[in-house]
Here is the input.
Amino acid sequence: MRSDALSLGILGGGQLAQMLALAALPLGVRVVVLEPDPHAPARLCAEHLHAPYTDPAGLSRLAECSAVTLEFENVPTAALQALAGQVPVRPGAALLERTKHRAREKEALRAAGVHTAPFVVIEAEADLHGALAAVGGRGILKTSELGYDGKGQARIDTEAELSAAWAALNGAACVLGGLVPFVREVSLSVARTAAGQLAFGPLIENIHRAGILRTSMFPATDAEATEVQARELARACAEAWALEGLMTLEFFVLDGGQGGPTPLLVNEVAPRVHNSAHLTQDGGGLSQFEAQVRAVLGLPLTDWRPLHPTAMVNIVGAADEHGTPLEPDWNAVDALPGARLHLYHKAWRAGRKLGHVNLVAPDAAALAARLAELERLIP
Here is the structure.
């Protein structure tokens, strides 16, 4: 056992907490999660405090840990405020308040010198007038809080659609973002210790289906033209926001024209590990989960990326036209060279993320061929 035995508290006990715990255990770090779901995936590999996020006894137990981190951004900030002064919380309440609210996040991005798509904040009926024209005539309406994986959002092409969509969201605070002509979507993570040490993850290319991430690939297309810029934008945010821990930025890659620079717009920021970087678990080298553990606990930290071409395909609850659940061809997935299955021990539900498959290959051509076969095996 390490003489400097450490423990990590996590607010949230879903699959991300499960994978954080699995990365922490080989480092000699014990993990405690506070999660109200009795079936929390992380309960299988961590001490599970089955209670609300603001439960005083649960928070007192987390305060006994070396540090506390977040599994997702929808944790009440009151929980972080209750822990303040008792235990380091990384990221902290100020960064969570910023990234869990889309309007505040976009305003903070611009304040850090980072470009976003045009947007208008919709908080009252009067805000609807002229909003669509202000973002270029077409856009995506998203709730300022809580929406994810295609939930709480609608594509908007007319003012009538904007009014109807806002009404369907019960007049919730929203952000109307303009549709931009991007050529691909990519993501990149940055980690920062309390001492200010920075490290970066790889640039990863992402493909979505029905608003949910379907496939992620490393290396990204034309990574050499965009990765340096992505790292600088991530650095700007991490330093301006005094990040402690890890956060992930999602980017739109715009067409810079022949010979011109390839501009990047930040779409969203997550104050945690990210679905797109699950492929770092099996590509060789440090994973994003170990990077977050190291950054939060102040352990030695370096840049992390796969050592081989790597891809990930999400397993999402799918059904046929009759509503009957569809399953992957499990035996064929297991037999595919370079494939490694990760299941979350969650009950099936349509549209729910149930697991993912990472795929590693010796070169780009082999990865493309194996990925095409894997896509065929997963509905």
